[in-house]
Amino acid sequence: MSKHSILSASSYERWSNCPGSVAACKDIPNPASKYMAEGTVAHAVGEEDLRAGGINLDPLIGTTRMQEGFEIEITEQMIDAVNEYTGYVRDVQEAEGGWPIQVEVKVELKEINAVLFGTSDTVLVVPFKRIHVFDLKYGQGKRVSAWKNKQLMEYALGVMLKEDVGECVLHVCQPRVEDGFSSYTCSREEMEEFAAQLEKDAAAALDPKAPRIPGDWCKNAFCPARFTCPALRGLAGELIGKDFAAPAVVDTLTMDHIIKILKYEDTIKDWMAKVRDHAKTMMIQGEDVPGYKVVQSLGNAKWMDEDVIKAEFEDEFGDKLFAERKLLSPAKFEKLAGKKRLGKDFRDDYTVRPEAGYKIVETEEHGEPIKLTKAQEDFK
After folding, report:
1. Which pLDDT band holds residue 10 (cuts at 50, 70, 90)?
2. Does the pTM of the predicted model rise above 0.85?
3. Domains of the chain (ranges plus CATH)?
C-alpha cells in the first residue's frame, strides 16, 4: 500500500466536488513547501506531548528540525499552538473519564473502497458510547469548521466500522486562527448516510471520464493541477472578463455577478498567484518571460554573531540592549497553572481578542453580522 491514498481524506472536499481532479493530479508532483513542513513539525511536537501524557515543551523553543528539505525552527508561537491543541484533547479525555488517547491512528475503509485510507491525528474511543476524532490544523489561513467536516467524518467512519458506538464527535483544532476550536456530533444514522455518499463519490472520482469542476476546493485542498486547469481558467475569464486587459467595470456588475466574484475571489487570486510562481520558476530556470525579470528579495536583518554585539555594546547600553521581560501567553500560562486552578471562565475573564476591522464571509461561516450604525442607516 502506498503512503498516501489517491483519494485522500484531506482532499475529499476537492475530489468530491471536482471528480476529474483525481486523474488530472495523478502524475503531477506536489512538492513540499515550508508551510507544509512547519505544520508537519507542529504535528510531531503535539504527538510527542500526547504520547508522553503531557511534557514541558519550552526547552524545544529555538531548536530546529529538518523536515522535507526545510530547516524548521520551533518557535514560541508553535509551542503555544501545540499546547492549546494538546490541552484541548486532554480536557475532552478528562471529561470522558480518562479513556486512553490514540495518536496517529491508521484508518482504512476497505468496506467502502480499497483506495480509501489515511491517518487521523488523534482518536479517543469511549466504549459503546462515542468516538472523538481530533484534527490539528496549524495553518493561519481560512478557518476550518468541524461542522459536517468530510475529512474528519471519513476518519470517524473508519474507526466506527470497528467499534460498537452510537455517535462520533469531530473536533477541529486550529489554534492560530480566531475561534479555531470547533466540534460537531454525528449520529450513527448520519454516519451511515455519509458512508453511502462516500462510496458514490469515490466511484465518481475514479471514473476516467470524470469532469473537472472549479470552485473553492481548488485552493482549499491545494490542487496541484489548478494553475493549468482549463476549467479554472474559464471561470477566471468569466468572472474578470473575457479580455483580462479590460475587466468589467465594477459599477456595472449585476448582483449575481458580484455574488459569484465574492464566492470565487480567493480561488481566482490563488490561481493567479500560482501562475506567477510558475512564471518565476520558468525564469529562474533560464526561460524568458517578455516584460518581466526575477530579482533578489531580502528578509529582515539578523545579527551575524550575537556574542560580538554583546561584547561590543553591553557595557555602554546595559539592559537596554535586551528585550524587556514579558508575560507568558495565555496558552503557556494555562499549561503552567493548570486549567483546574484557573477555571473554565479564565479566558473570558482575563483575555480579549481585539477587533481588526471588517471582512466579508459567506452566510454559513462563523461570526455574527455587524449591526449598522445610525450614520450607516441614514446613508443606506
Report:
1. confident
2. no
3. 9-205 (3.90.320), 225-284 (no CATH), 306-350 (no CATH)
